[in-house]
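Section 5.1 Outputs to date
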Amino acid sequence: MKRCTVFKLNEVPYDEALSFQFELAERVKDKKGKETFLILLEHPPVITLGKNGNGANVLVSPETLKKKGIELKRIGRGGDATYHGPGQLVGYPILSLAYHKKSIREYVARLEETMIKTLDRFGIKAERNSRNAGAWVGDAKIGFVGVRISRGISHHGFSLNVDPDLKAFDLIHPCGLKKQKVTSLSEQKNKKISVNEVAKEYLKVFSDLFGVKTVLVRTHISYIPKVVEHA
């Protein structure tokens, strides 16, 4: 069985996590694709726009965002505007699509499935929606997918709303969809659910759907390069 090294981090600034993705992607390239990583974390409040995203889907000015303590980043993934913040499980699989025998479409579908099956473990029925990639509960979006494939290696990934501040999504048209409802596990279950308990179940689902044995590493971002040497 293929091995996947999992870095379970706490809250990591967006730019630091992005740099770490690039480090791991180089590692995968150096190993000719025969190494797989998954980063699980939370971000401080940040709105990201995909490379072809419409800036008009951010509904307030950069100055207003700054006053609210929310960063704004234009990044290289697909998709449009989305929000990341505490209470949201963010996952970045860094892997070779060829090694895992996946087309881009199959890979995105598999990421959607990991969220749908994780939600099912909490008694929440979610599904795909032809309008937009991700996981949906009825007409409300709960999980988001935005990826970039460079030299056959995946970057970016998914985000799953566990217990974030849902009002932050009012500052954007999520994924470019106007007046889009957004929900979370905590809202659906009407009780507080932690990111850590969802991450634990997500890892089981990811291991099963990607056919990998996960090796969990808990570390502070500052020590990651040393840990990678032994991954």
